[in-house]
Amino acid sequence: MTTVTDNNQTDYLDTAITVVLSLILGVMGGLVILASGWLLTTTPVGAALAQTLAITEKTPWYFTRSAGTVAYLLLASSTIWGLLLSTKLLKDHIPAALSLAMHNILSWLAVVLTSLHALALLWDSYYSYSLADLTMPFIGPYKPGWVGLGIISFYVMFVTSLSFNFRKQIGQKRWRQLHYLTFGVYLLATVHGVMAGTDSGNLGMQILYWGSGLMVLFLTNFRLLVGKGKTASA
Q1: What is the pTM of this model?
Q2: Total of domains in the chain
Q3: Half-sphere exposure of residue 233: CA atoms within 13 angstroms, side-chain side
Q4: Are residues 208 and 133 located together in one domain of the fold?
């Protein structure tokens, strides 16, 4: 007969395996990017390959801008999807397990793309970035204040994404309270993008910022109104 202790041990084991695999994949991805950059810039074969692929000194800058845009789009989608879950608007159309898995996947994809967005700056030809500049807030060569907010946003986003794997250990109530930090993540990322992003003046980015911001604001107010309605009818 399966006991509660056995179930808890299984949950802890599954969580540990998930966390370890996530960390391993993240480290491996970072090492692959670093190794690729080294090969392309310091070896004759890499130089020939870079020429064949039309990789220039501006490619890292284009890549970091693209990765940052996709990362923000994923973060906005994750935030909006989470609000749709909290308002119960999806429960009659999509199974709860699938909805939560989708929210988790969007969050981790945002983490991955944000990592790529940052790491690509190591090969930027205009600013000289180091790993310390990318991991410690407010010390980088380009707009350190606004970029620092982006770094803090990444750390909090990583913690909230990781919390999906500890829901049972944390408890549903505390997990929800911790998950409120996603609003701060979205806000910090938006401020970072607007103030530090070189594409923030483009019409497409303005539509993305304003569109996602208004959607988040609308769904947040809707969630608050629904909560008040339930309290009043109780």
Answers
A1: 0.78
A2: 2
A3: 6
A4: yes
